[in-house]
Design a protein that fits this description.
Layout: H1 7-14, E1 20-24, H2 29-40, E2 46-53, H3 59-74, E3 79-83, H4 98-116, E4 121-123, H5 128-141, E5 154-155, E6 160-161, H6 169-178, H7 195-210, H8 214-243, E7 245-247, E8 250-254, H9 255-260, H10 263-278, H11 284-295, E9 302-304, E10 309-319, E11 325-335
Parallel strand pairs: 1-2, 1-4, 2-3, 4-6
Antiparallel strand pairs: 5-6, 7-8, 8-11, 9-10, 10-11
Helix pairs in contact: 5-7, 5-8
């Protein structure tokens, strides 16, 4: 069956024949699919594969490594391996952070390999199912708006290219079976003690039963949502660039101009400033109380704006050239002083 969207076109738009790319190759179906797809490309870039052996599954992890070694040797593809069998120690009681720790190690290694080989990009095999599982996971846990963005095809800061985001898992499996290609199965992907796996095995099938085209329609909706979030982000950044003043650790902005903005932009502004100051997320009740305080426009009012920070309304007097004075109200965010 033809693929719905051509990942080769996405790759060719970024890398040329003489460029080098690094592929994260776990041995699972998605990365093996991308491996073969790269080799079949006309004018394919030079390929370097990178594999991390965490050693978390004992003999199975070793078999994954051996599979990847054999796959690359048979196609004469250079392979870089990070072997953590003896050094990557993680107690079962700490398993809640295990996935994130593995992810951090993997991306650090991929970037190291990219630099060593002077590669143009790092390719990873995230596909459409991964995209929607991440969205549903963030929705279940509660997330800021940034958590509801679709993954980008290309992240220039990280040199990260995801050419499979519009290809479903089933399309990948069908293609591998059609070409009689083998891959490795990680049994931990079926353990329902992990939230993502529970969504994959229990939630996604129900949604596809309601709408057999769920993957495609939900994927399109997620792209639309991401475009709308990008628009909101551009409006937010434009307003902050024009109106936000910084004096050391103190931030300030004009209250009257702030209150003229649509409600949704006011909320985006306050959430963004809270994130800059505290690195966390402003709760809805706290956001509502802060907006009520600002809406009173009363100089001298103050409200807690996260741990160790006050939000205060201050009235400034400016002398007009024509005589008289202007009263200008600004909002100041500054540290509390004992």
């Amino acid at each position: 069956m033809p693929l719905s969207n051509s990942p080769q076109e996405k790759i060719s738009a970024l890398v040329k024949t003489n460029d080098t790319v690094v592929l994260g190759l776990s041995g699972g179906p998605d990365s093996v699919f991308l491996f073969h797809l790269l080799l079949k490309m006309p004018n394919a870039p030079r390929l370097v594969a990178a594999h991390v052996n965490y050693g978390l599954r004992g003999r199975k992890s070793l078999q994954d490594r051996l599979f990847v070694e054999k796959l690359c040797a048979g196609r004469k593809v250079p392979l870089e391996i990070l072997d953590l069998e003896k050094t990557f120690v993680q107690k079962k009681s700490e398993s809640g952070n295990l996935e994130e720790k593995c992810r951090q190690i993997r991306y650090l290694f991929l970037e190291e390999v990219r630099r060593r080989h002077h590669a143009k990009a790092i390719l990873v095999a995230h596909q459409l199912n991964d995209q929607l599982e991440t969205f549903l996971l963030n929705l279940t846990r509660g997330s800021s708006l940034k958590g509801f963005r679709a993954m980008r095809d290309y992240d220039p800061k990280r040199h990260l290219l995801r050419p499979l985001l519009e290809i479903s898992k089933q399309e990948i499996l069908d293609w591998l079976k059609k070409h009689r290609l083998s891959w490795r199965i990680d049994q931990s992907n079926f353990s329902e003690k992990f939230s993502r796996n529970l969504i994959r095995s229990q939630v996604m099938p129900v949604l596809e039963k309601i709408n057999p085209a769920f993957l495609r329609t939900a994927g399109n909706s997620l792209l639309d949502l991401t475009e709308n979030l990008k628009l909101a982000e551009n409006l937010l950044n434009g307003w902050l660039e024009k109106n936000l003043a910084t004096d050391g650790k103190k931030l300030s902005f004009p209250l009257d101009d702030f209150l003229r903005q649509p409600d949704i932009l006011q909320k985006h502004i306050l959430r963004e400033l809270y994130g800059r100051l505290h690195g966390g997320s402003l709760t809805r009740p706290a956001l509502k109380e802060i907006l009520l305080t600002l809406g009173k426009k009363q100089a001298g009012l103050r409200k807690e704006f996260g741990p160790g920070t006050w939000l205060k309304i201050i009235r400034l007097q400016n002398i007009r050239q024509t005589g008289g004075t202007d009263n200008k109200r600004i909002v100041v965010l500054e540290r509390k002083f004992n």
